[in-house]
Structure to design on (681 residues):
């Protein structure tokens, strides 16, 4: 009986082998199937959109057939030239926007790392604080942010409490606290230079903005901090390292990949946020009649500058990033 | 101390318990040794410092919300009264009432809910699928696809807004409509659609549906990244055993992988939902007609409250803030119940750079 079954099996196998695909081929096919929506979307929609966006920046649009279709007229680099040299505001907005980005990014990184370190320790109400710090990520976006921009007078009115603010010239409550502490005087005694004092006080004036923008970064740092093995800290404390030394020798190198990730995330987030002054100006130009292709050229200039800066900075930073697992 | 070898003296004996007095350091001395030293004091100072910082920053985050809520209950008189701070004197619900009645709030709520829920559902499923494909299958171009996903995340959509608008205003896939309409220069004899060479998809849900279904909508690159990071942590043995039991690739995905990733998918859904809910970019790009009432149309001063007086500047700001509060009211409720998922989701995805 057994022999007969074996013979049958042997006879059957060659026929079947032709139909059966190898597992590798099967999984490769599965991979293409699962990512098919993205592949189609990228080829049919995204690539043409990016390409056309480039195309629009070197043309002007003329609508024909009463808006039913349109015609592109080649304009060369005229849009770029107009953006950089003719437009009275763009270069100014661009420079100040880049400056703001340069100041904001370190502030956000340092702030969110600081808060993440604080929240990583076991304290009462940790979950509540974490939830509060994450509120702006969900609730202060898009429409609410737009409303907030036109809000400063009301906010100063509401927070103008009797204790600190008798000075009508100050606009926000934080500015009042800063002026009450006289932070610049404090710094002038510390001999760190006027630029530093100005930077710190500008951050303090801007703290609401910075806190609002560091929710996700804080969580990424927190996740990184929690992935550091407690055994390392234990051996550190056995060896007699102070908390300060432990931070700089253990926490900081271990968290450095997260710093790189957060650095890139912060810049991309700032690029795409609706309150970014350069983007606001570009949107405003986009709304003006006949200037839509000009706004595209402006957006490309801004994007090109920032992305080159990000790549250079990321490459420089990656030299100092420490990875625990080196294969 | 010298009689430490002595037996503990029985102090009091009741039916169930015996109280024994040990010979040891007095209570206050023990407390002194414990609490008055450098280590403990620095710990206390650090704890206080930490709470001051944390509570202070919580205040910075939450204060705008408090002041918005309190100003939403204020009558117009309160904005010229210098003695009114935070607590309204002329308590009124008129602001809410007129926004509700005159700004088409319910209509906007319905439309936006339909838009956000359907967009978020599609995005969650599609991003899970793409993330799974990128994380678990080895095929040619896998790494390039992953880079392309990151690429879509990096280009700011303001750069693409004109071409996105043009794409959906004159929608045409690979020149098919142009061919059918007789507009193709290489084959002009065909004219089925009567000269119409493109479809106008603006002011419909179609652009957002198409973008969501292809994983290109707002921050979808981030969602795909998070999902694929999550799936990388799922052991391969699960699927292998399913394959051995004769389940196909899709059946395995639906029956085994999807139920496993429900917590992560809730995270993605909540992000997609709430960011779509307050989105201004896509709604103002694709919904140009005012007949389509969305949340962005709610922000306006209602006719009945449009009065001019000394404090009208601030009063109008308060009304706009009340509109904002009413817009985010559903989000606040969701956040109160689901913040656990949002926060854990980001932490679980790890975002590790390796």
């Amino acid at each position: 009986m057994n022999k007969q079954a074996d013979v049958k099996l042997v006879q059957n196998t060659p026929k079947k082998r032709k139909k059966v695909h190898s597992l590798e081929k099967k999984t490769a096919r599965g991979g293409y199937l699962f990512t098919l929506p993205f592949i189609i979307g990228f080829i049919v929609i995204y690539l043409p959109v990016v390409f056309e966006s480039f195309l629009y920046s070197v043309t002007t649009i003329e609508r024909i057939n009463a808006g039913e279709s349109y015609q592109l007229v080649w304009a060369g680099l005229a849009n770029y030239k107009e953006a950089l040299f003719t437009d009275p505001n763009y270069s100014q907005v661009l420079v100040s926007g880049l400056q703001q980005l340069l100041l904001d990014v370190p502030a956000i990184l340092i702030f969110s790392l600081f808060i993440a370190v604080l929240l990583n320790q076991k304290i009462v109400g940790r979950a509540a604080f974490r939830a509060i710090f994450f509120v702006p990520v969900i609730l202060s976006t898009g429409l609410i942010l737009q409303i907030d921009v036109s809000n400063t007078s009301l906010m100063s009115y509401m927070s103008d409490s009797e204790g600190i603010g008798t000075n009508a010239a100050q606009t926000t409550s934080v500015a009042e606290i800063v002026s009450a502490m006289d932070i610049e005087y404090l710094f002038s005694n510390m001999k760190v230079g006027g630029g530093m004092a100005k930077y710190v006080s500008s951050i303090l004036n801007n703290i609401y903005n910075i806190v609002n923008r560091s929710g996700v970064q804080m969580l990424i740092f927190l996740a990184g901090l929690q992935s550091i093995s407690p055994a390392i800290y234990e051996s550190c404390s056995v060896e007699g390292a102070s908390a300060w030394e432990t931070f700089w020798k253990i926490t900081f190198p271990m968290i450095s990949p997260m710093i790189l990730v957060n650095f890139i995330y912060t810049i991309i987030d700032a690029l795409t946020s609706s309150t970014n002054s350069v983007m606001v100006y570009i949107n405003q130009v986009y709304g003006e009649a006949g200037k839509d292709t000009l706004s595209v050229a402006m957006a490309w200039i801004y994007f090109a500058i920032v992305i080159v800066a990000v790549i250079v900075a990321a490459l420089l930073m990656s030299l100092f990033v420490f990875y625990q697992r080196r294969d | 101390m010298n009689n430490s070898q002595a037996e503990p003296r029985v102090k009091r004996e009741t039916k169930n318990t015996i109280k024994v007095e040990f010979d040891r350091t007095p209570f206050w001395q023990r407390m002194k040794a414990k609490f008055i030293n450098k280590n403990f004091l620095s710990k206390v100072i650090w704890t206080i410092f930490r709470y001051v910082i944390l509570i202070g920053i919580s205040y910075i985050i939450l204060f705008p919300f408090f002041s918005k809520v309190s100003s939403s209950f204020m009558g117009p008189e309160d904005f010229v009264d210098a003695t009114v701070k935070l607590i309204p004197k002329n308590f009124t619900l008129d602001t809410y009432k007129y926004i509700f009645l005159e700004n088409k709030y319910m209509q906007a709520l319905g439309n936006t809910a339909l838009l956000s829920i359907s967009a978020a559902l599609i995005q969650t499923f599609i991003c899970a699928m793409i993330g799974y494909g990128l994380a678990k299958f080895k095929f040619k171009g896998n790494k390039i696809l992953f880079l392309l996903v990151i690429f879509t995340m990096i280009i700011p959509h303001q750069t693409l807004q004109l071409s996105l608008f043009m794409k959906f205003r004159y929608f045409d896939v690979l020149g098919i409509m142009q061919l059918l309409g007789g507009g193709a220069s290489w084959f002009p004899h065909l004219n089925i659609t009567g000269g119409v060479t493109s479809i106008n998809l603006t002011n419909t849900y179609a652009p957002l549906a198409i973008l969501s279904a292809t994983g290109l909508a707002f921050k979808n690159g981030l969602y795909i990244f998070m999902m694929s990071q999550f799936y990388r942590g799922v052991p391969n043995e699960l699927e292998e055993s399913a394959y051995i039991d004769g389940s196909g690739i899709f059946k395995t995905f639906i029956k085994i992988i999807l139920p496993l990733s429900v917590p992560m998918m809730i995270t993605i859904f909540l992000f997609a939902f709430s960011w779509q809910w307050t989105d201004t970019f896509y709604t103002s790009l694709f919904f140009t007609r005012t007949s389509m009432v969305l949340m962005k149309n709610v922000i306006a001063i209602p006719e009945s409250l449009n009065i001019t007086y000394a404090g009208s500047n601030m009063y109008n700001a308060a009304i706009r803030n009340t509109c904002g509060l009413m817009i985010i009211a559903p989000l606040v409720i969701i956040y109160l119940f689901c913040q656990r998922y949002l926060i854990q989701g980001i932490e679980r995805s790890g975002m590790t750079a390796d």
